[in-house]
Amino acid sequence: MSHGRKLFVGPRLRRLREQTGWSQAQLAERLRLSLSYVSQIENNQRPVTASVLLRLAEAFGGDVAQFSEEPDRRLLAELHDALGDRTLSIEPFSAVTLQRVVEHAPELVDVFLTLHQRHARLREEYAQTVDRFYGELGSDLGDGRLREALVPLPHEEVRDHFNRRNNYIEPLDHPAEEFAHVANVVPGARANAMRQALRARFGVEVVDADASDGWLRRYDPTRRRLSLPPGLSDAQQAFQLATQFALLGYGDVIDAELRDGGFTDAATQALARQGLAHYFAGAVLLPYGDFLQAARAHRYDIELLERRFQVSFETVCHRLSTLQRPNARGVPFYFVRVDQAGNISKRQSATSFHFARHGGACPLWNVHEAFARPGRILTQVAEMPDGTRFFGMARTIERGGGGYRARRKLFAIGLGCEIAHARDLIYADGIDLERPADVIPIGPGCRVCPRHDCVQRAFPPAGKTLAVNSDTESLVPYRFSGE
Q1: 238-284 pLDDT, tens per residue?
Q2: Residue 108: C-alpha distances to residues 112, 161, 267, 385 (Å)
Q3: What pLDDT, on the 0 to 100 scale, is given for residue 20?
Q4: Are strands 378-383 and 439-441 parallel, antiparallel or unpaired?
Q5: Which of 76, 139, 203, 307 is the most exposed place for a label (fewest CB within 10 A)?
Q6: 139 and 180 belong to one structural domain
Q7: How many angstroms separate the Cα of 292 from the Cα of each of 186, 188, 289, 406?
Q8: For residue 384, what are the domain limits?
Q9: Where are the beta strands (DSSP E) in 221-299?
Q10: Which of 267, 285, 303 is the last residue of a domain?
Q11: pLDDT interval class at 68 (50, 70, 90)
Q12: pTM for this one?
């Protein structure tokens, strides 16, 4: 429970109770509370205390995180954004109404958001198709041909599945941790251990490949031969070897996860399979218990964790965002990777931090500033429109290279958490988290941000009518009705 904040869990408790098949009286008996007390909790007439929260966790066989408000807050933010779509042409709903819908019918909200995402993709495909074939004349055409686009793109569907699982895949994480310990996969000697494991378990030989073709891993199932390019570090080799080990040794677990995700498209299934194998590999390189213990001991100092586990900055940040094992959770982080054009190529969140699906990220977010100060870790206290504050770090990373003509990739990595957790991070030392001197008002993206006075806004938010007056002008580029 956060400091000074009452926690109401009524709708979540009711859903859990009904799913379990208990009556209120049965639940009251298990919690050693009166029936009226349980009824008041379920009707949000009474907040839960810390002791009652622990009893609830014990009764439903989990931990207190399942009663967290964060999933509902994230769902509420996404619903608000979707209903702001100007193509819906509806009167705005009150915040109270949206809150009730999310609390009492989250499954219905999920279905609506899925439909809206597919609708948005259809619109984007239409605009791109018209632009491609008709150029500037496209705006005058209303009957351009359009291929069907009723499902999300594969990478979006896979990303959403990982987010729904809170970025933690239990059926793969535990086996990966056990395997790492049994096979003695330790920093500095991981690749050798993985080669031996592949040979002993599957009869697979690892050979050097031609590095000029750009492949990082190629497996020949007929010859049982795995090819890796020379020049990879020990950790990079181990990651590719562990990925192949997962595909060969844990295919049934991965298949079950694919069925659970409901992936029907072949391309999406293949991408999800690769993503799950990568998850296993990451958990082998950074076993959950050892990594969480080190992260806490070093106060989440990313560079010290890099050195301790001999992996990259990005690998450490990615793993930090997955530490959500029940009863052994780390700080809940969001994680994002952005290129210089502002495109988000990786994003996941164990927080209520809301990423816009369309229209780009907020330009005031420090992840963009990182490109102007390469190699430096930047910190920021940011506030979302709903008042939630986050403490974030950002830094650039570079991939590739090795020669003057070798291709290089430059990204910025963003990692952050709600400000209540910031005191656990070394990066927040010296900052008054209760009254920070500089709080940056950011948003999920210009298309959905409700802020009226942002001088950095690239275009007005969807669903808002522009208020234009040629006799006035200010630094704020767009004014809209309701100010």
Answers
A1: 999 999 999 999 999 999 999 998 887 888 999 999 999 999 999 99
A2: 6, 17, 27, 25
A3: 84
A4: parallel
A5: 203
A6: no
A7: 16, 19, 5, 36
A8: 330-441
A9: 225-228
A10: 285
A11: low
A12: 0.74
